[in-house]
Specification:
Helix content is 58%, strand content 1%. The protein is built from 8 helices and 2 strands. Strands 1-2 form a two-stranded antiparallel sheet. The longest helix has 55 residues, at 104-158. The protein starts with 9 loop residues before the first strand and ends with a helix.
Length: 275
């Protein structure tokens, strides 16, 4: 009786749709499969999968290094090292070098190694290009999420996204960063300063100047993102009991009252008119 064959397992890590991390045994699939699927016996192995597509070597190199990827420079250096190694082996096996001392079988081993390195170098170069695109896409996605979160903070704080409201808050924030300090709880205590510091030439002031010059949507968005980052920093300041978000809100009330009193004050009489 013929022995039943052991079914071939599909290695998900070798599939171009795998988006997890094999090193951390984290399963993720671009086609929506999960590690809870019934045919799963192992985390990264399946009995069958209609969406399985074998990754090319450049794709596999990139996928395996994606979890620690910081750009394609490392893979470019690897490709250069592989090319140099292949060149060194060619020089060593040349007739004028060591080739005359090697047997035919040994020379064949060297030629096989050189051919393998010649094939690996362009694959590493292609994997590096994939990595560069991945990094760019990752950075763009992160920047988009970051900007949306900052805009949400501003909208939550102002309840009014009009350009004038945003610019007024930035003006108040600059005043707060320069002038606010806490009242010492005990004699001799050092007053706490604001949890934000805005200096001449900072990005938020450049964005403010651009917005005043041309309050177009792009400039207002850029200023709102900068303001959102300051709001986030102030909220962290609240947790440290320094001049944070609650202190800034109170300071804005003080400034609003101050402006109201100045606007309602009667002008001094003209001495020449009463003479």
């Amino acid at each position: 009786m013929a022995k039943a064959k052991t079914p071939v397992r599909i290695d998900c890590e070798r599939c171009r749709h795998f988006t997890g991390q094999a090193f951390w045994l984290k399963f993720a699939c671009a086609k929506g499969h999960t590690d809870k699927d019934p045919e799963h016996d192992y985390l990264l192995y399946r009995k069958s999968c209609s969406d399985y597509s074998e990754a090319s070597r450049p794709e596999l190199i990139f996928l395996r290094r994606k979890s620690t990827f910081a750009g394609g420079e490392a893979m470019k250096r690897d490709a250069l090292q592989v090319k140099r190694t292949a060149t060194t082996l060619r020089n060593l096996t040349a007739e004028a070098a060591l080739g005359q001392y090697l047997t035919a079988a040994e020379l064949e081993h060297f030629r096989a190694a050189i051919a393998a390195l010649d094939g690996l170098a362009p694959d590493l170069t292609r994997a590096a290009k994939m990595g560069e695109r991945y990094r760019e896409d990752h950075q763009k996605a992160w920047q988009t999420r970051h900007e949306e979160e900052m805009l949400r903070l501003v909208a939550e704080a102002l309840q009014d996204a009009a350009p004038d409201a945003v610019m007024d808050m930035v003006d108040d924030l600059r005043d707060f960063s320069r002038n606010w300090c806490s009242t010492p709880a005990e004699p001799g205590d050092t007053p706490q300063r604001a949890s934000v510091a805005i200096y001449q030439g900072d990005a938020i002031l450049r964005a403010l100047a651009a917005c005043r010059k041309a309050p177009i949507p792009a400039n207002v968005r850029a200023l709102s993102v900068e303001l959102g980052e300051q709001i986030e920093r102030m909220r962290q300041g609240d947790r440290r009991n320094t001049g944070g978000w609650a202190d800034f809100i109170e300071y804005r009330r003080f400034l609003a009252l101050q402006r109201k009193l100045v606007a309602s004050a009667s002008p001094l009489p003209d001495p020449d008119a009463t003479a």
